[in-house]
Amino acid sequence: MENEASSEKEIGGSPESFNIPREIRKEDIHPVIPEKGGTVLVLQVNAQDDRRNPDSSEFGALIPEAAIQTAKQAKEFFNAVFRGLSPEDRENVAVIVCASDATLKMPRGRSSREKRAMKTGVEVLKGIRESMTAYKVKSTQLLNDAGGSEGEPIAVEGFEDLNFWGSSFLEYLEKKYPEDPDLWIAYEADKEVKDKRVDMEVEGPHNIAFRTRQAMTKMMLMAREHLENHPDSRVIVWGIGMYDNIAPWLKAYVFKVNPKEYYVRIEKGGGIVVDIDLKGEPQTAVTEIGGITHEVECLLWEPHPSEKD
Fold this sequence. Notes:
309 residues; alpha/beta; Rossmann fold; 7-stranded mixed beta sheet; two-stranded antiparallel sheet; 10 helices; 15% strand; disordered C terminus
């Protein structure tokens, strides 16, 4: 579904009535300071990677300019957070960076070992460390450096790649749709290919949204565990995935529309910031995208059998 050629007409019509923005951009990752005992989730699509030549050793690697911009973006985000807190309150900020460890796969056998979300996370960590140094924040407050992830982004279950790679269903799509944009449009709309997809036990947009919700829950459980041990903390979780898993989740749980409809364009490196109260009854979560506030469905959940295709 990493498809730049989809259109509103092809996927399901005009999204304005649901306050779906024309594009989710880098600028939508704007600084939000968590309340004491609260959590902020940054959800970001991987930075721009090199797709020019499948035979090149650089295929799938982050474009150098995009890597630099990603570190700068994270640094500026945390500079604003730390600047908005007293030196004493800065001591209670905890940061966790998570990412998908999926490698790049594309139709018709094009692939790379590059883990573009993980590499994006490495750049995010670089920017965070620079900000923490500038504001004299202890390195141990970056939990990636204090725990078992050896200073790398934490791979999160649920952020995996699509399960149709290497399947007979993909072969079917490749034969039916010689052009990649048409293949992705058909898969995301899930109309004329749904019966074949279900028969071949391949996940669809609802399944992807649901397992991405599972990934969100795992990240929120990390935050909650830290808050249970440090109730005065302010936790920031920065999660990096791909368009393929983030877009269906956004449609289902932020914009509250059918994830098979309404194409959501997300700029590479773009994303959202969710302000979360895990202590409240009920728990609440909100995000502001393009100046419009959206309530986000609870990020801590129990599986429900109705949430499937």
